[in-house]
C-alpha cells in the first residue's frame, strides 16, 4: 500500500517552500523506501526552488542524507532492511558509454527510483537529484544507497551525500593533489572548506584559503589551511598577486574555485603556477559566461577541469571518508553548524545566503 509522509516541496519558482503530505508508492523491483534520519540543506536545493536548475515543479527537495532502509523491492540485493545508508545521486549504471570506457564517474544513465512520488491529489513530484529527502521517508533505487556504520553521527556522515563529497573529491580526485604540492581554495562555504580538508588529506604542504569573510578564513585553519587571504575589497589581480607572494612568486600547483562565479574563476586561473591545475567545483548560474583573453588561456598551459560531484564513486568513497571521520582524521562534524526541523528549511535558506553556516542539517 502507498505510504503518506510529510515532506518539503517547492511548488513554484521562487516561492517559499511548503511542508505537505507526500505519497510514496510501493517500491518497484529494484527500489527501496528509506526512513530519513538527517538531510543537509544544500545550495542545490535553493537552486531548485529558484528555478536555476529545471522547471519541473513541484520539486520534493533534499538530497544530502543518512537514512535507514525500511522496505525493499522484490529484486533488491544491494541492501537489506535495517541497513544505515548515505544516499547518493550517482548510482552508476555500468552499461553506458562512460561506464564501458572505465569512467563510471561520468555515468550518463545513473539509476533512480522507477516511480514518482506524488502529492495527495496525484500531482507527480520531481525529486531533487533523484532523491527528495526533505521528508520523513523517500523512494530511491537500491544503488542510491551506500551502507555506512550505524553508530556514526548521521548528521555528519550524511553530508558526504553531496556538498562535502564535492569539495573533498575536487581536491583528491579531480585535482589529484600530490604530496608536498601547494593549493589555493577560493570560496569557503561547505564545499570550499571540504576542499581544504581534502587538500590536507592528500598531503599538500601549503594550503591557502581565500574568501571575503575573515571569519571564514580563520575557520579554514581548523580544516587544514596553512595561509589565508582576506579578499574583501581586493581586485581579482590583487588576490592573485597575494597568492603568488605566498608561493615564492610562482603561484600554486592547484587552484580550486569553490564558488563558480567569474571573479573567483579569474582569481583561481591567474593564481596558478605555469602549467598549474585549476578545478571548478562551484556550480555556475546558467547565464554565467567565462570571458578572458584567449592568449592567457593558451600561454599559461596546465589544465582546467570541472568537478562533478567531486568525480566520486559513492561505493568507494563514502565508506572510506566515513571511516576517516570515525578515526578522527576528517572532521565531518565540524561542518554541521546547526540541527533543525523540517519546518525550518525556508529559514535555513536565508541563513545559508547570509553566510553564517557551513551546513544546516534537518534532523528527523
From TrEMBL:
Its cofactor is Zn(2+). GO terms for biological process: formaldehyde catabolic process. One of its GO terms (molecular function) is S-(hydroxymethyl)glutathione dehydrogenase [NAD(P)+] activity. Keywords: Metal-binding, NAD, Zinc. GO terms for cellular component: cytosol. Gene3D superfamilies: Medium-chain alcohol dehydrogenases, catalytic domain (3.90.180.10), NAD(P)-binding Rossmann-like Domain (3.40.50.720). Pfam families: ADH_N, ADH_zinc_N. SMART domains: PKS_ER. Residues 14-362 form the Enoyl reductase (ER) domain. Belongs to the zinc-containing alcohol dehydrogenase family. NCBIfam families: mycoS_dep_FDH. This is Alcohol dehydrogenase. It comes from Corynebacterium doosanense CAU 212 = DSM 45436. The lineage of its organism: Bacteria, Bacillati, Actinomycetota, Actinomycetes, Mycobacteriales.
